[in-house]
Amino acid sequence: MTDTRRGFLTIAGAGLLGQSQPLLSKFPAGERRRESNDVTFLGEGDARHGPQGWQGRDDTKYLNEAISQLAARGGGDLVIRKRHFVSSAVGKLSLGLDSITAPSLEYAIRLRPGVRIIFEGGGGIYSNESTTSSKMKLACFGIEKSDGQFPVRISGGTVSGFFVGIAFTETTAVNWLISDLTITACSIGILGRTFEQCSFRDIYLLQCCAGIVIGGFYRYSLNEYSETGGFADKCLFSNIRSVLDCNLDSRAEVIDKWFDDNVFMTIKNTNLSGPGNSGPARSFPYTGICGYGIRMMSRYARPNNSNVFDILSHANGPRSAIHIDAGRGNSAQSIYTENLGYADWKRRSFPIGLEKTDPYLGVGKRMPFLVKGVSSIASINAQHCFAERVTDSAWLGSADLSSSRFAQNSVAR
């Protein structure tokens, strides 16, 4: 099997694993190596990739060089072992149609066509807080528009401490597979504009302000139906666990405002051409992103179609488990929710709409649904939640709602 077909290049906790001399030359001479037919393992004695990363080590350059070499060889697997720390930006993703003047989001690790990221042995990528600028809005992984609609594979491990865990804003994600991944302590777990037939499996979102955010991108001033604002079609969300530990507080306010100022751009509605205060681009007002498990927005009324939510649990946040602005043919098998609809989830105090106002809903307005935009739900369990209704689904199977408080327990039809 050729290098092009196999293309293995591994980053061990102590160094880089590969056959390219320019890359290996960056590491100390005399390291132990053992070789197989087409894999070279570096020894485990390089302390530069150990816990010292917290003290100023920045692995951004080495990780990107490894990915670039694999891409140049036709692709392959990048296996990341132990912890690596990054704090530098290598590029920017445009958040608008005009890549020159639109707001942007910086990222540290560039995903490239044909390169699969695999974490092993407790591997992960962590934001190096000691060297990252406090003013930097940094995503861990990003993919450029020039890389096109290539499948991306990321599996295993941890991504921690970034503004966004995984971001793609300039291209359509087609046939992506993100699996066995923990995203923790990020403002936004996964941020994307458009998904087509992608799979998200065994994802753990811990202490993130927002889980998975799709769509909602302002693109132009025409008040007309368009796909350019983003959507998700025919995607699978299986065994997604979001334990956000997110309150409706000043931190959530800052992140909600950032998304509106840079992505959704409600302010642009005043300049929209078209009929009065209506029209596709005004159909679904912005309602924030913090506290949602999965949020799919329809900036120009394009629906999110035929997505499947297999097993989803969402806990400790002020907003819905699933909130889809415009949905068609979406279905869910099993949904578990806990401690939702409160401004302070830990104490289950200040229920929204009763003692606390969500600024995007208005005075006296509860969280409207635990689940919105899903046509059918086989089962739902709601523990200690406070909302207007359970769901707007046309069909709801079994439901355990005994410990939750709803203004109306019936399904809205």
UniProtKB/TrEMBL annotation:
Q: Which InterPro entries match?
A: Pectin_lyas_fold (IPR012334), Pectin_lyase_fold/virulence (IPR011050)
This protein's source sits in the domain of life called Bacteria
User: What name does the UniProt record give this protein?
Assistant: Pectate lyase superfamily protein domain-containing protein
Per the UniProt entry, what species is this protein from, by scientific name?
Answer: Sphingomonas arantia
